[in-house]
Structure formats: structure tokens, C-alpha cells
């Protein structure tokens, strides 16, 4: 498989793509047909890295169906047999990123739209956001910082008796958390979180695990999962420009698909 044209498309949007060979995997694991990664270089000199297994070389068709040079985004498509996975690759504020798309698209604009949670789509329609403004990080319908969307929630301004937490993390998986100056939540399930279980354990699971591993009990932090979360104030992250929200906004993650082929997502 000749990937020179794919490499040229990455270079056209201002990025580097390396093709170092077979995917890296532990000896006891099944080698995936390909992996897509971002290799963090020194001084912000990041590059995309695509590894293709020799066994899958003749089975894969890898193309770039669309590129937006001005936005520095492209859609990468990987076809194997009758299945196609697509990824949005591009630059967001300070770093390159790759996101597995939840559905197949024709171009970058559709890819960006596919990553919006339903609540953000409804909000932009209600606020009559049109054209290129729909993909801005800040418009009348929402404000976006990385994978998180902040959607205006004026109804929360009238709520009384809110329990407000300060400097709370917003985290999905093992990525670096975003920090909200003020946060409140409704509903949700209490879970116990640590590095080994970043998505949390329910109480019975936590109790059973810590009975078998009492030395790890102090590693867990009690948090709330699947809550309806609202934030305001300063929202910060080391890889993104700080966002300041003067009023309460509902927090929603993007709809990025969880692909086994994407090694690094942020």
C-alpha cells in the first residue's frame, strides 16, 4: 500500500506524518491492523504517526477524502473489507489532535458537526447560528474547549440552594482534566475513582476491590458519574486558552467514538 499521497495531504495542512511500521503491542496481545497516534515532540513539534501491520497491508485502503487547509483539518478514512472508520485530524489552538468520528462523513465541516453533542446542535439551531460560525469554538449556541462543550443554561440562574464546588476537574478517561472554577451538579451516581479505574467503580465494586486490595484504599477519590453538570467562572486546561463563563453553562463531552486504533486522544 502506497501512503505517499496520504502523507502529502498531511503536509498540505501543515502537519508531519510518520510511517514507522507495524503497530506496537505487547507480545501476548493481538496485533491490530493499524494504529493512529500523535507523537509529542520537543518544543511542541508534534507529528501524526500511522503504523500499519504487514499482515494488513494489502487489506487496508487508507485515503484522505477531504482536507481544509485554512482550518488545518482533514478527514482520514480507513477501509477494511466492507467496514470504514473515519478520523478527524487537525490542529486545535495549541496542539494537533485526532478524533474517531461517530459516523462517516463527506468533509471536514460534517466531521465537526458529527462531534457535537445533541444539546449543542439544538442550542445552535435555537440561537440561529449559521454558516462557518457553527464550527467556531465560541458562538451563540455554545462555547467549546477541547472535547468539552459549554451550553448556556439561563434557567440555572434562578435555581436556589445550589451546592457549588470550587476548582473541580472535568475528566473523561485518562486525559488531562479541565478545571472549572465553579461547578454544580444534579442527579448522577457516586463512584470511586483512581488511576487504575479512571471511569470509577460503583460502591459495591469499590468495596469488593478494596477488601482484596486494602493497600490501595487511599488511592481512590469519591466523585459523581453521569451527572448533569453545570459550570461557570474560569475553565482552564494546560493545552487550551482559558474560557471565562459569566453565567451557568451545561457541560457536555463531544461524541468522539472510542476506536481501538487510536492510541492517543486529546
Write out key terms for the chains shown.
about 270 residues, mainly beta, six-stranded antiparallel β-sheet, 4 helices, about 15% helix, disordered C terminus
Tell me about this structure.
The chain is mainly β and 266 residues long. It folds into 2 domains: 4-114, no CATH class; 118-253, no CATH class. Helices cover 13% and strands 39% of the residues. It contains 4 helices and 15 strands. It has helices at residues 4-12, 108-114, 118-126, 203-212; strands at 17-18, 34-39, 47-52, 60-68, 73-80, 83-92, 95-100, 143-145, 148-152, 165-170, 178-186, 189-193, 221-225, 228-237, 240-253. The strands form 4 sheets. It has a 6-stranded antiparallel beta sheet with strand order 8-9-15-14-11-10. It has a 4-stranded antiparallel beta sheet with strand order 4-5-6-7, sandwiched between helices. A hairpin with a 2-residue loop joins strand 8 and strand 9. The longest helix has 10 residues, at 203-212. The radius of gyration is 20 Å and the shape is globular. It starts with a helix and ends in a 13-residue tail after the last strand. Mean pLDDT is 89; it is low at 259-266.
In short:
With about 270 residues, the chain is mainly beta.
Amino acid at each position: 500500500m502506497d501512503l505517499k499521497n496520504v502523507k502529502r495531504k498531511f503536509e498540505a495542512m501543515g502537519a508531519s506524518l510518520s510511517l514507522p511500521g507495524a503497530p506496537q503491542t505487547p507480545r501476548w496481545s493481538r496485533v491490530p491492523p493499524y494504529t493512529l497516534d500523535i507523537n509529542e515532540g520537543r518544543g511542541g513539534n508534534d507529528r501524526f504517526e500511522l503504523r500499519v501491520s504487514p499482515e494488513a497491508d494489502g487489506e487496508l485502503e487508507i485515503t484522505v477524502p477531504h482536507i481544509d487547509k485554512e482550518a488545518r483539518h482533514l478527514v482520514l478514512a480507513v477501509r477494511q473489507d466492507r467496514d470504514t472508520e473515519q478520523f478527524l485530524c487537525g490542529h486545535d489552538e495549541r496542539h494537533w489532535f485526532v478524533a474517531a468520528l461517530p459516523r462517516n462523513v463527506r468533509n471536514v465541516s460534517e466531521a465537526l458537526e458529527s462531534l457535537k453533542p445533541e444539546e449543542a446542535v439544538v442550542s445552535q439551531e435555537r440561537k440561529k447560528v449559521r454558516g462557518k460560525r457553527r464550527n467556531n469554538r465560541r458562538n451563540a449556541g455554545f462555547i467549546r474547549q477541547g472535547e468539552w462543550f459549554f451550553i448556556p443554561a439561563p434557567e440555572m440562574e434562578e435555581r436556589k440552594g445550589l451546592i457549588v464546588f470550587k476548582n473541580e476537574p472535568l475528566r473523561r478517561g485518562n486525559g488531562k482534566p479541565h478545571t472549572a472554577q465553579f461547578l454544580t451538579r444534579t442527579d448522577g451516581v457516586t463512584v470511586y475513582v483512581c488511576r487504575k479505574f479512571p471511569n470509577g467503580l460503583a460502591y459495591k465494586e469499590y468495596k469488593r476491590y478494596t477488601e482484596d486490595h486494602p493497600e490501595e484504599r487511599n488511592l481512590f477519590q469519591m466523585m459523581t458519574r453521569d451527572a448533569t453538570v453545570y459550570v461557570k467562572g474560569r475553565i482552564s486546561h494546560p493545552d487550551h486558552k482559558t474560557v471565562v463563563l459569566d453565567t451557568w453553562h451545561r457541560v457536555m463531552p463531544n461524541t468522539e467514538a472510542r476506536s481501538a486504533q487510536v492510541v492517543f486522544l486529546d
